[in-house]
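Possible race condition, two jobs.
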Amino acid sequence: MKYIYSGVHTRYQLYRMLKQVTKKPISFFEVSAAYAKAQAFMQGGQKSLKESYKMAFDPEENLSVVFLGRPYTVLSSHTNKRIPDIFAKWGIKSFFQDMLPKGDMETIRPLLDELHLNYVAKILEAAETAGGIQGLYPVFLTSFKCAPDSFILDAFKQVMAAHNKPYLILELDEHDSSVGYETRIEAAIRSFQNHYGQLEKRGSNDYTRVNPDLSKGVRGKNVVIPNWDPITCRLLAENLRREGVKAYLIQETSTTIQKSLKFNTGQCIPVTAIAQGFIECMEANHLDPEHTVLWMSHSELACNIKLYPHFIQSHLKAHGHGMEKAGVFVGALSFIDISLRAGMNAYFAYLFGGLLRKMICRVRPYEVIPGTTDTLTQQAMEIFCDAMAGHRTKESAVSQVTELFSTIEIRGERRMKVALFGDLYVRDNDVMNQDMIRVIEAHGGEAITTPYNDYAKMIAQKYFKKWFSEGKYMNLLSYKSLLAAMNTLEKRYLTYFERVLSDVHHTYDDDPEAILSAYHLSTENTGESMDNILKVHYIKKHYPDVGLLVQLSPAFCCASLITESMMEKIEAVTGVPMVCVTYDGTGGDKNRQIIPYLKYPRAPLPPLREKEIA
């Protein structure tokens, strides 16, 4: 990640880790001195690389290429398929992006400011620099289905278009043959030579696709909200309407997701699904694109979410047909930027939505009269929407909804508890996850979900420590104060939910460093993969009889793949089997893989307790 830690912090962490593995005593001053020496060595090496470029690059002699990409892809002969050697056979000098001089980045500054992925930023900076150097042509080496690269590829292409310069993108996979690469390299060299021989090499200087203008506000606009959770998002939309915002909710279908795939070139499925859903929402509601914006949440996660707004805005521009006039607005997940009241009520929308889903999962598998829970859920949604709209008090709404659910007649039965976690867009999205909860219930299980208020408490300590280390004291103070205030306010509502749920007062104060250390992770590692570990820890802590962990993921999601790679370790630590279900948008029964785990549990289900039978 592109986070800058202080030198003292880095030195201390190195000292702390080395102290645990060295056999002889080591002092902080020794580590600090070694770190300073290593930094000096690195700076000297960087300077030497740039000097080598200055001496070797000669545009009057012949054209040259510069390789862009991650160093572990470009610089290793095992991963780069010896592509630099192929250029050498053609007599073409090649350089690496770190060798280029530092250019003026103002033309792409808006996008760079949104990039918290270090190598992605370096690649784009090198592309902008190379674009302005006559006789130097970029060759972008990217790994097969690298999601961060899939986002930056469009920006890379637009930078090259702005400079009117040809380029080559080679996607590397695990196959050993270089024949396909040789053919493409030969064609690229001919293209480079044709351009190199031209006298006129002016570019278009059009950076609007690289730096799309995002909307500055929502007042007077139609505001469309992504529908990652049909319960909570409906309450959020009602909350916005109370503030005078003309809010619409995307009505995503499986067809929406399938249609979005034609625009997907390796990005996580949710981003193109949201873009397609936004277009369909405008068409279905006859909204004027010029007066319509898509609301997207600001994110500091170590993921591609921060690039979603730029990608979608560029996608709208490319789509045309009037949709290029629509905007994308980046707002706070808390809606605090709309108004203080909107921020407070948004918290309760997340709270009520998450707990309503939890009540559904707790009651519906055991209902004596099938369909009762679904009928009362519809009534509950109307009651909560009235509360969000300000037509009744939130306390009366919670009281009535929990009273309704407490009247549902249920039977005593033991079912396997199946905990759902994973990508936030997929986990509670009944369309994207193909109604996973009902699949679990249909095959004898009970789904365990995580309400948003619990999720916030799970990850809070980790982010508070991280922000303190990074010196982001305003983030720390504001979010810590907000969470403390809302925790106090929610207590009176949680009492009502106890009518149905016995687990609304769980604590989440275990040391995150201790939790992550079991997986050889540190608190500096942030993002959805690390959050998943915390979720798994607390699921096992609060539901010791959980029988199955299920990660729900969209295709091309890096965080999900990283979590999946830790699956063996997760099973070893928790003692619970884990299944990863990935949705690629093409349909098919993706959920069928969990059925054997439900039919043939690894451990026998414990007997019903007397209270549960009653």
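Job #2 (started ~2 s after job #1):
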Amino acid sequence: MSAPVKANGQQYDDYYKLRHSAAHVMAQAVLERFPDAKISIGPPIKDGFYYDFDLGRVDGGSLRSFSPEDLEAIETRMRQIIAGRFPFTKRIVSATEARALFADQPYKLELIDGLASGGVDEYGEKVEGAVEISTYTQDTFEDLCRGPHVEHTGQIPPDGFKLLNVAGAYWRGDENRPMLQRIYGTAWKNKKELKAYLDRLEEAKLRDHRRVGKDLDLFSTNHEMVGGGLILWHPKGGLMRHLAEEHSKKMHLEGGYDFVYTPHIGRSVLWETSGHLGFYKDSMYSPIDIEGQEYYLKPMNCPFHVHIYKSNVRSYRDLPMRLAEWGTVYRFERSGTLHGMTRVRGFTQDDAHLFCAPEQMPFEIDKVLDFSIGLLRDFGFERFKLYLSTRPEKRVGEEDMWDASEAALLAALDRSGLPFDIHEGDGAFYGPKIDIYVEDALDRPWQLSTIQFDFNLPERFDLAYVGADGASHRPYMIHRALMGSIERFFGVLIEHYGGNFPVWLTPVQVEVIPITEEQNEYASEVARTLNRAGLRVEVDDSNDRMNAKIRNAQLQKIPYMLVLGGREMEDQTVNVRLRNGERRGTMSIADFITLAEDAIAQRIAI
């Protein structure tokens, strides 16, 4: 890949230009097939591109949408345009010229108004300084665009792109605006890269946590009766959650944390004081009237932990104070954004808030960072990327506090030895933060852990401690969540393993399979022995054939299958198979227990 190029202060690589250009070619092909269509925006995105269209309505008033035949025809036409090797030509236009050019395109006219008024580009994003209005033309198609593009359409590999699917999308993400038809596509430098990406998509479909969760009976949702974005944990999923939380809570206790529990609702004055009603109200549910007073479902746990801190006079000897809670919170998410376990409205956080003296801060940050990485590694994540988000333009707190906290976070990142980047100005108004991303088995990044400084709540709630000098001092406050949302964490975990969980975390670790009814009693004896050893065991004493029983256990992704025939019963042994089809052969029950216990202790997935 050549070095990234810069335009309008931003950096663009070859894939950006390739995908941006493919979006324009797609828009041309769509307009040729649907001359009355209205076009909006078509940006490149990670691994691909999209473009949004308004096709109007069909008879009866329903929205017109693209059919599979349409996508096939659009792809064919795109290849013809690519073969034409039409140059992408830029020109600068005035707002008046642009309005005349796009007079029949209402979405473009709205974008032009934003450009002309300054401060908003064609994607609705804020920009600094004067905004240039420009268009790009290829063949017969001209689009409002800031670029950049490839030199000509022939630089888009005809066998390196594919249109993937169609989805509905509100104009500018506002559910009160028109619903548009969005075509998603992907574009790569050659056929080999495209195939590799499509193979990853197929593997991602197989690992989709909604599919695997249903197949393994881990969780469900019920939008009609229970409500969207609310997870029902089934017994097997509930057991996995219990095991994960039990492990994490043990580590918290060893790490000097104290567990607390707080209510699910709080009076409006609490959220007014914390600032949530001022800064976060759009993500909170409507108030509940209780005896004439307004209460809100909690979107966060932190104000409650602050009040636990405030319930007594604190001395420097009490610090650091580490309060942890598996607290369930409720945040309003638009229905169109809900996605299985990874985007929900009610979820539990492995939340904690640390109150410390300034001189304790570096040690506490190191401790939290090590804790987070260690915990994530226990669940099988090994590849991490960290981001330090620094002070934004609008912020609270003294500059020396920002200096000290950013320096502490940066020093902790340096000491960690892990790769990290700095996001200048991307911190919250109340403090800088570290976000920890993991890469899953398909190389996809997921943001899980967060370590967040807060100068705001100690000020708003007037927190204090008595120092060694006898004077009152303001403590530092650190928010941190390691798994983050338990629901989201499990969605990521399911997709990372594709349901083939580590032995310690698997709901059923061993399936005992008697070949005939004659071995049923022996199978029960084996199961009781394994249970006493602490293993989670099921016996398949159904009338199915042995191969069917093995297949069923493999579909349920049970790590070990113990096949018992007449010889095994006579010798008091077991014949061991793994869920991946590997055969370990015949061994004693004691040897098998040792085998399983080693896998559990090492937290491995077989």
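The first helix runs from residue 14 to 33.
Logs attached separately.
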